[in-house]
């Protein structure tokens, strides 16, 4: 009975459980800190399990839809509505399912890590309320099939993450980073609402599938597209709008930073969803494809060159993250640029998109791992300045191994997961335009070079006197990091399995606009 | 022409808001600019849903079936609520910044410019 209920309502439960869990958290925390820990862990565990269940349903039975307030959960177009899907519809296709699983896994390990990393801080019940709210909002962003609903989740994610960035309120700089981030993302969200208003005024619909069917790509639709691309690339931190990322990433607690990476990837997902599924072939795909490619190349190059001179370890990883976002934009941009050409699409376009999507998944894992290891080092020695670190390899062996795995993965060294996805991108982009592939390779080498320096200055060298009493990070933190490290290695050794089961269906789901439409609007 | 007045207002408000956000140095004024921008979008959505001579979209005992669209009003209601939450959070950040730096001038918040 209960399994039937869960299977039937899985799309909404993935969003609702963290939401309810978030607001009950302060109440539960009144009993005792132990209850609070159990509650938060329980909520993320249940959410992750349901996300995995939902993904397995989607991958075996095709797209799952959930209509709010309808008599049956798949009644998308009510009989008396004149053929318009008037209700809010959650649409979980292979792409959304892949994103959900990966977010749930990151969320779980980050919460586990934060159980001991943040236990010394004050007002933890509010902290975890915001944390669960953040998980709820990213889950909502990737499942919803309704534009306005997406806007609401976007705002929830901005609010929760700004609150978390400002969490160390005793430091003025944390507030400064938070207000910078929040002003930027609020303005981005308002422009997104402008785009919604424009599209609604033209086509009288908010459902993505309905809009996709009716879209004419007039001048006004182009303005809406520009607003959407601008708003979402600001939220994901691609280069011209990247200025908030290093500040926010470096001043938030490390566990929060790992979640902020997930939020930026959710925005990236939404960007691809709107460009591919909503606009699809009606937009001038070559132009928009090249816009994405340009953003991607700029992000790659500027991110990595800004990373090299950094002294603050979290800031450095943040800049490297910007450069990795560039790879995803490059892969998806190439896929978009050849969307209207079936021969090129099947020969390399779809591989480029698979590379982009696979890199999104891998990026969430290794970037999260790098921030968590950096956080555990800072937790033990209390400084984030690379010049003051040294010789920690003697006392923090496991952290060193995890950091090394993360570094090799981000630099694309075999046999780690970053290599698998970057290889797909190099191969396919080379067929599209060799220069782009060469830039991507060079950026990868620079990434490795800058991380070799970081690795050396943190872990190598003789044992320093001032860090004589430093011990290994606590066990829950190691478990949290270990889960991510194991995922990196497993994904690196069996990339083909992951590509075939998760990534290829996701890429197909993005390309196959007609499939998405027919699920919502009928005509199957 | 006359019925396009709300749209002109939206354009004017948007420009005022963007100018305020870009040129003002006082953080509170920047936040006011954001609020004006929000109002501009809300006005745009409401005017899209308006029908000339329409009545409120309540079917019971409706004097005529020429009604304004209900969805934009629901959207704007939600968007206003979100706007209130956003402003509250931004203003509380500003309060803390004033306490830490003794000023709300964006030029003085330069600890992060490295």
Per-chain topology:
The complex is a heterodimer of chains A (524) and B (114).
Chain A lengths: L1 H28 L3 H29 L2 E4 L21 E4 L1 H24 L6 H20 L3 H19 L6 H32 L4 H7 L4 H18 L7 H8 L2 H26 L5 H23 L5 H25 L4 H40 L15 H15 L5 H16 L1 H26 L15 H19 L1 H17 L1 H9 L3
Antiparallel strand pairs in A: 1-2
Chain B lengths: L4 H19 L3 H23 L20 H32 L13
Overall geometric form of chain A: globular
Oligomer status? heterodimer
- Low-confidence residue ranges of chain A: none
Number of strands of chain B: 0
Structural class of chain B: mainly alpha
Average residue-wise pLDDT of chain B = 87
- Number of H- or I-type helical stretches of chain B: 3
Order of helices and strands of chain A: HHEEHHHHHHHHHHHHHHHHH
CATH class label of chain B:
Mainly Alpha
Termini Cα gap of chain A: 30 Å
The chain-level structural class of chain A is: mainly alpha
Gap from first CA to last CA of chain B: 52 Å
What are the key terms here?
heterodimer; A: 524 residues; two-stranded antiparallel sheet; 2% strand; globular; B: 114 residues; mainly alpha; elongated
Description of the structure:
The complex is a heterodimer of chains A (about 525) and B (about 110). Chain A has about 525 residues and is mainly alpha-helical. Chain A has a domain at about 285-495. Chain A has helices spanning about 1-30, 35-60, 95-115, 125-145, 145-165, 170-205, 210-215, 220-235, 245-250, 255-280, 285-305, 315-335, 340-380, 395-410, 415-430, 435-460, 475-495, 495-510, 515-520; strands spanning about 65, 90. Chain A has a two-stranded antiparallel sheet. The two termini of chain A are about 30 Å apart. Chain B is elongated, with a radius of gyration of 19 Å. The longest helix of chain B is centred in the last third of the chain and has 32 residues, at about 70-100. Helix content of chain B is about 65%, strand content about 0%. By secondary structure, chain B is an all-alpha fold. Chain B has a single domain (about 1-110), classed as Orthogonal Bundle (Helix Hairpins), CATH 1.10.287.3510. In chain B, α1 (about 5-25) runs antiparallel to α2. Chain B starts with a helix and ends in a 13-residue tail after the last helix. Chain B has 3 helices and no strands.
């Amino acid at each position: 009975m209960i399994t039937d209920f869960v299977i039937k309502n899985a799309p909404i439960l993935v969003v609702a459980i963290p939401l309810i869990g978030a607001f009950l958290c302060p109440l539960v925390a009144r009993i005792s800190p132990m209850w609070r820990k159990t509650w938060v862990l329980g909520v993320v565990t249940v959410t992750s399990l349901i996300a995995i269940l939902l993904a397995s349903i989607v991958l075996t039975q095709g797209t799952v839809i959930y209509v709010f307030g309808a008599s049956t959960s798949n009644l998308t177009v009510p009989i008396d509505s004149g053929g318009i899907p008037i209700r809010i519809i959650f649409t979980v296709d292979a792409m959304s399912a892949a994103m959900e699983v990966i977010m749930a896994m990151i969320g779980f390990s980050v919460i586990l890590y934060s159980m001991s990393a943040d236990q010394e801080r004050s007002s933890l019940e509010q902290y975890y309320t915001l944390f669960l709210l953040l998980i709820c909002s990213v889950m909502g962003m990737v499942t919803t099939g309704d534009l306005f609903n997406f806007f609401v989740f976007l705002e929830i994610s901005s609010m929760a993450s700004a609150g978390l960035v400002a969490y160390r309120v005793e430091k003025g700089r944390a507030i400064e980073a938070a207000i910078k981030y929040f002003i930027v993302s609020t303005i981005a969200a308002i422009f997104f609402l402008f785009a919604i208003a424009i599209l609604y005024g033209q086509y009288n619909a908010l459902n993505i599938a309905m809009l996709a069917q009716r879209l004419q790509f007039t001048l006004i639709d182009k303005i809406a597209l520009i607003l959407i691309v601008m708003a979402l690339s600001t939220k994901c931190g691609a280069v011209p709008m990247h200025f908030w990322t290093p500040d926010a990433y470096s001043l938030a607690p490390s566990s929060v930073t790992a979640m902020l990476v997930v939020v930026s990837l959710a925005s990236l997902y939404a960007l691809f969803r709107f460009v591919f599924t909503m606009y699809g072939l009606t937009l001038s795909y070559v132009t928009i494809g090249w816009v994405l490619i340009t953003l991607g190349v700029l992000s790659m190059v500027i991110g990595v060159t800004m990373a090299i001179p950094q002294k603050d370890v979290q800031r450095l990883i943040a800049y490297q993250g910007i450069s990795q976002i560039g790879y995803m934009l490059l892969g998806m941009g190439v896929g978009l640029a050849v969307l209207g050409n079936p021969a090129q699409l099947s020969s390399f376009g779809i591989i480029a998109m698979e590379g982009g999507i696979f890199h999104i998944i891998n990026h969430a894992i290794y970037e999260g791992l790098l921030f968590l290891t950096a956080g555990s080092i800072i937790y033990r020695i209390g400084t984030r300045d690379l010049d003051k670190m040294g010789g920690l390899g003697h006392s923090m062996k496991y952290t060193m191994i995890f950091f090394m795995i993360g570094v090799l993965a981000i630099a694309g060294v075999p046999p780690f997961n970053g290599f698998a996805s970057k290889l797909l991108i190099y191969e396919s982009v080379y067929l599209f335009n060799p220069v782009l592939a060469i830039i991507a390779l060079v950026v990868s080498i620079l990434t490795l070079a800058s991380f070799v320096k970081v690795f050396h200055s943190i872990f190598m060298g003789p044992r320093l006197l001032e860090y004589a009493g430093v011990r290994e990070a606590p066990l829950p933190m190691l478990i949290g990091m270990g889960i991510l490290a194991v995922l990196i290695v497993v994904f690196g050794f069996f990339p083909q399995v992951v590509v075939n089961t998760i990534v290829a269906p996701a890429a197909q789901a993005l390309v196959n606009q007609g499939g998405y439409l027919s699920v919502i609007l009928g005509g199957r | 022409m006359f019925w396009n007045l709300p749209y002109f207002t939206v354009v004017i408000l948007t420009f005022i808001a963007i100018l305020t956000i870009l040129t003002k140095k006082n953080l509170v004024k920047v936040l006011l600019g954001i609020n004006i921008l929000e109002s501009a979008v809300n006005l745009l959505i409401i005017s899209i849903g308006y029908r000339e001579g329409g009545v409120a979209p309540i079917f019971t005992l409706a004097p005529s079936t020429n009604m304004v669209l209900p969805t934009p009003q629901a959207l704007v209601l939600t968007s206003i609520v979100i706007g209130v939450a956003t402003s509250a959070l931004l203003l509380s950040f500003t309060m803390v910044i004033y306490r830490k730096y003794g000023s709300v001038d964006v030029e003085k918040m330069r600890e992060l410019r490295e």
